[in-house]
Request: fold
Amino acid sequence: MIKRKIATFAFIFAIVALVIGLSGCERIPPPPVMDDAEMPTMVEGITIGVALAETGEFAEPYGIPMRRGLELAQEEINMLGANITFVSEDPQSTIAGAKAAVQSLVDQGVPAIIGIGISTHLEQAFPIAQNAGVIAFSPISSASGLSALGDYIFRTGLTVGVLNSNGTIVTHEKLDYKKVALIYDAADTYSTSSNEAFRKTLEGLGVEILTVETFQTGDTDFSTQLTNIKGMAPDALFVSALAGEMTQIITQARDEDSGIGDTVRLVVPDLTAKEIQEVGDDAEGIITFSGWFGMADTPGNQVFVEKYEAKHGVEPGPWAAQAYATLHILANAIMNAESTDAAAIRDALAQTMDLPTILGNFSFDPDGDAIYDPSVFTVKGGELQLFEAVAPQMTTDATIPIGLLTSLTGIHAEAYGLPMQRGFELAREEINMLSGANFTFITVDDKSTVEGAKAAVQQLVDQGVPAMVGLAISSMLKPSFPIAQENGVVGFSGVSSAAGLSTEIGDYIFRAALAVDKLIPPGVAATHQKLGYKKVAIIYDAKDEYSTSGKEEIEKALMANGVKILTVEAMETGDTDVSTQLTNIKNLEPDALFISALSQEMTVIIKQGRDPEVDIPDTVPFIVLDLTEKEIGDVGAAAEGAITFIAWFHESNTPRNQDFVQSYRAKYGIEPEPWAAQSYATFYILANAIAKAQSTDSADIRDALAQTMDFPTILGNFSFDPGGEAVHDPVVLTVKNGELQLFE
Reply:
């Protein structure tokens, strides 16, 4: 065994700098410039063996993506002062090739080998490295028990015992399948192990296994097995296979003549975007489990995705990601060992605990298998999306009518009503497709008036809906939702946010928007701390319930922070000239101007405030409640520098938020508005309550809603307070270059 010592300081600097850069999810900076006398140098290079399939059937789905991930990690680490080089051997997608590749790398004296993705090949080849005392580290092999072949063997991929068991439990809890079928490749180690993990978990859950069908690697016709499965009418089919056979099974399973049809859920571990693309529409609705997700907010993950796409022109898959993480984990162990001696690296790897990686905080168990959090996905619209937000399965196949009350005409339609309708419709479609529910909307136009809202609520009550959603404007909600309360019908607004309305009206009234008394105080505290304003002005719409309530909460928050209020100027709904009020404000020279108004009046104030005739200086920031991209587009450059307090941000890493943004863009061709997002979340919250209640009785839904606690939504973990008001984290944003960005 060849021992190579390294210059400890240089390598520690490289790895520590890399970890710091990744853990903050920032772009990795170049190493600092030093004089030649200060620059530490490597005593020798660090040579790692690489055994990835470059040719044969496993090259394209596994070997080439892993190679790309490794090389990207190598470039990053070397940029920071290390000198990792690779010596490569091609396993040629065969057992014999894998054994020959490992033997060749051992003979070349490398201290560690990365590669061998296929468990059937690893089982035969890695004992060669073990016997020679060389680290053998697989990025993706996941059959159970293989790391236990020896103490020099480690794996980055989650074993099927972890991945399949977790995924089966999660999906069973949501879908409640009673009887299932299994099919697997009896000639492949991974597939056999995957199937066994499914069997054990399903039996433990009390699920009936109707049949276990087998095939052999290389088979192309699965009609006999699928016909047997179809005749037994399972609720789900669990598939354990590598990429080549997997795609054929999916395609044949969905064949109209010989397949099992669309009503049987397919559960296919390790399904990637590549396989989804190959099978096309046949992948829709499939459930899969994986150790990595491209949208995850794990340390450095988004930086990795961006760099991979920039370098290779394609999005990374899990095999590239796991290989990328593998080299970082190995490099960290070499740094900790301060040696490239294989035994020292082995010991350092074994001690890896909660290392921040793009897979999450990473550890090894005593056998050398990976420990981190797995993910469960479903295929929707041809893309992988997190499964967690799927509403629980309903116990009834009956249609569940829900009233949808929104402004389809009038002054509030474009700003509020239409975005709300889009958000509600998107949520309804998703929940119906993924949960087995059959929600329908009875849609009524409130016509942007108080009388229209009262008539709409009465109409929905008369039609017997158990719950109604919508109604954005607090001035319209306050006189109309009491009609729902008096008739024992749930009224649930996703947007209205004047203080206290849910509590005031009654126990059937709920709101998903943060009321101004929850939204404004943290926003004022955050902006006051950063900007240090001492004297401010306020302008608000004295005829609007929301605007008046917002003004009152702004006053309270400012007084609590010791800020002097120079003036409170009023306007009225429909006003188009507020120059007198704004001139008064300008002459008082405030440090900031707070604006509390609905969309139409808000844009008038912002435009005229920056207009040359009034010309409030840019040094006076406008702090505006619920400013959205729509208003920014309407007022243009006048919005620059404005600060807003709001309940949702499109870039937030809340549960499934990025999936929502992508789905909304795909469906409607525009960016989602906050009112669409809050409406989308509202319907998920309502559907979850109906599922929990296992009833469409209004009183049961009311009770289930009231008990909602830390429910994951795109708004964050969501709860109701005792009055039916929303509890989740608000957001403070600022307008920079015409776009909303986090104020922090």
Observations:
- The CA atoms of residues 263 and 582 lie 62 Å apart.
